[in-house]
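HUMAN: Would you supply a protein with fold tokens?

ASSISTANT:
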Amino acid sequence: MNTFSKLGFILATLGSSIGLGHIWRFPYMAGQMGGGAFVLLFLVLALVIGASLLITDMIIGNRGKKDVVGCFETLDPSPKKPWRFAGIAIIGGPLILSFYAVILGWILYYFVAISFNLPSNMFLSKWAFNELMSERIWCQVLGLFACLFITALIVSLGIKKGIEKLNLVLMPLLFIIFIGLLIYAAFQPSFMQAVHFLFDFKYEDVNANVFMEALAQMFFSLSLGVGTIITYAAVSQEKQNFLASALWVVIPGIIISLVAGLIIFTFYFGYDGSLGSDGDRGINLVFISLPLIFSEFGAVGQILCLAFLGALLFAGITSTISLLEPSVMYLTQRRGVSRAKASFWVSVVVFVLGLFAIHSFSSYHIQNLQTPLLITTDKHSIFFWLNTLMQYNNPAFFWLDYLTAKIIMPLSALASIIFLGYVIKEDTLRGFTHGFLNPTAFGVWYFIIRYIAPLVILAVFIFKFFE
């Protein structure tokens, strides 16, 4: 049967959760939220709430043994099966993938074109990124195509030969790269400054905003609400220990986030120039600040840049396959489509959405630069027609992000929690968890999913919806 081994399931689930957000969003948010207080809250929330949410999705998938929609139908005790609509999570994966793969394409471009010619000053660093966004649109298209092609190829190979085999290789490589970068960073003069920034806790730094951002970071870093965990668990071993599996996903994810923060802030604090306000924000951190910082190290900087971007590519690919797999499994199980065809057609839809995302990123970026969008002057160019379909004040990326991160993901995760906490009988749940939760552990977990987790998800939903 095409199922994960016990180790393969853990690594695949870990690969789905360790993505670009762990490596650049976590350091950015830690920087914005004051460091230690944000980090401590994130650690506690991830270990308590995050692990409980993962166990919930794992149980639904393992006991349902079907695609996301089918799992809810199988477990729903009602004859009319109204909870099948909780399977809407499968829509979120392709939508997120449409802009996630675009950003991964930028990383691929930087890995190939920029790592060997690092910018020597802030002007050149900004110019390199601006050129990609404004004049090298087709490089973005090729990057998107390459990332989706690799993703579709791996998913089409199946669970054992594709997804598990890839994660068995890339996850250890990812950790090896980060350990190497951390060792190098540890010998830099600014390393202890990074340590103090991330781990010095000040009680006065704790406030509602820091708590909510730590909560949001925890939620969005665990692949919740897109059907990935349910899908992977559906093809896991019957006697998989989901408590251990959840901890093996949460704890290494925390470690990668902290290591990424230490590496980035070591180089950031050690840079002898002023990065300015543009240098410390999300995407700019990776594509403008870090290439400039790495250039200070000469030939070693090129190696550091290649290693860092390589780690981002590995983390990104393991995440993209997890975003594609739920919809592919749905088509293969419910529509009788082969894996190859399902992977191809879903990727085609994602590619088209990705073109809108590319246009959205580029037009928004160029509008901020107050530079004309030269790429759209040719009426024979697809981007000219995309330009006529979209308004700059409502770019596609922001709608895709809004729909997925602020609506589909929180509501899908909430549906899973309510379904398991209130629809499935407690005695049935005890039977489901008998092999890995003792009575005390079950009581704690059951209390969390019934009373704490719904409030947490609602808080994230409201916070992000009105942000």
The domain at 6-465 is CATH 1.20.1740 (Amino acid/polyamine transporter I).
